[in-house]
Amino acid sequence: MYVLTELKPGRAVQLDGEPYLIVTSQFGRKSQSKANMQCKLRNLKTGAIISRNFQGSEMVEPADVGYRRVQYLYGDGSSFTFMDLETYDQFFLGKEIIGDIALYLVDGQEVDALTFAGTPIGIQLPSTVNLKVVETIPGVKGDTASGGGKPAKLESGLTVTVPLFVNEGDTVKVNTDTGTYMARVE
Q: Looking at the chain, which residues constitute the CATH 2.40.50.140 domain(s)?
């Protein structure tokens, strides 16, 4: 059990049977009253953010969350199939859980699955992924890195703006937080 002073950002706690991640926490005390901790918590299953005040004597249960290395196998638009790389068990996650992460997934890619009580509840992407350009307008001889950009459709379906020298078949590094081009991979 966590006491008030242990409620720090990055800790996972369990409230009403649901796993939450502490996003921010601020210790407070008004004159002549008990200490309290104001926290913003993100539900690890739904992504919803809530605010909650914990009183001085209140105990909070830690959540049984962890990560497992998994491989993305395929998706059909409404569900996405992954395989645990230790047990080789397959599991599905729905589109409502995966959301925009699907734009960075390609068949065979290894990612981390967020688990709660041993059950996968989400996917954690690396900060960058390498994706192949499948469609873009051709570059013209003389184009350099120091000028404009053009749209490029990647193998996962994501469209990003790339420099003029990037061609179909090239592999590019994309930032998964911002969805922007970072570099061409040789």
A: 65-124, 128-185
